[in-house]
Hints:
- The chain is of the alpha/beta class.
- The chain has helices at 15-33, 39-57, 62-69, 77-84, 126-131, 139-154, 172-176, 179-191, 207-211, 232-240, 246-253, 257-262, 281-299, 304-317, and strands at residues 86-90, 103-110, 113-120, 159-165, 197-206, 218-222, 226-228, 268-270.
- Strands 1, 2, 3, 4, 5, 6, 7 and 8 form an eight-stranded mixed sheet that branches.
- Helix 1 (15-33) runs antiparallel to helix 2 (39-57) and helix 4 (77-84) packs across helix 13 (281-299).
- The protein is globular.
- Pfam families: ACCA (PF03255).
- One of its GO terms (molecular function) is acetyl-CoA carboxylase activity.
- This is Acetyl-coenzyme A carboxylase carboxyl transferase subunit alpha.
Amino acid sequence: MAKKNAAPKTMGFEEPLIQLRKKIEELKEYTATADVDLSSEIDSLEERLAGLENDIYENMKPWDRVQVARHPDRPTTLDYIPLIFNDFIELHGDRLYGDDEAIVGGIGSFDGQPVTIIGHQRGKDTKENIRRNFGMPHPEGYRKALRLMKQAEKFNRPIVCLIDTKGAYPGKAAEERGQSEAIAKNLVEMAGLEVPVLSIVIGEGGSGGALALGVGNHILMLENSTFSVISPEGAASILWKDSALAQTAAEAMKITAPDLFGMKIIEAIIPEVRGGAHHHYEKQAEMIAQAIRKSFEELKGLSGEELIDQRYKKFRSIGIFSE
């Protein structure tokens, strides 16, 4: 697992903060080595830094959130699992073709309750990204996920899905093995599961690749995650024949958690630690665990038939607006 609190890589909109923090550190070092008291200057800069952090992090644009969602140090499914769940046992294979490492799944416990956990898994470096196919599943990945969901239903275990993918793999081999059919079958089968299904977008939620794990009773999103039918670059290429207009597309598409919460597509937004989940894995995991706990509490009293009905009504209501 990646180092939980290593110094994260920075993004363009954070540049003013980086420069100010660097200046504060320089003054602190100078104060420690020279016989000069610069405490008042340091206090002034730290106060300015706090105000700047508020301005930047509380007024993030959609494109800023896209950048945070794609951050190379952002925690993945395998980073979160040991921090949220206990006794996790990973299960492999779809029993039809093979094992897709872009989807991780298995059984564990949450607050003493057995659960099934399934999630997309991308890599942290080039070697792991190649192994995980950059988090883009093949059909066997979705069939593995469905196998574990049906197993969870058989043993009456709630299901937690962690979504983090640019989309399903669009290659020739995936199409030959039935990519569209695998995604479509997941949508149908998830809609009829008689156990609670909780889907949490922890990074990018791209296209059908995300929706194949997204037919939940509750859909939650981390504050700086995205959920969309297409990437901003893809939308810009189609609409304006220019992927460089991705920032404009991100603003128009309403793909961020605040946008989707406002449209009642998701049930809740999970707050992120200041600057993004990559700044502190453990604290972020605690916030996700609290959200899971709350959703389970709301869903635990529903029968299998009621869970199906709630899920059906939830998705039927999407896109219906009244003046």
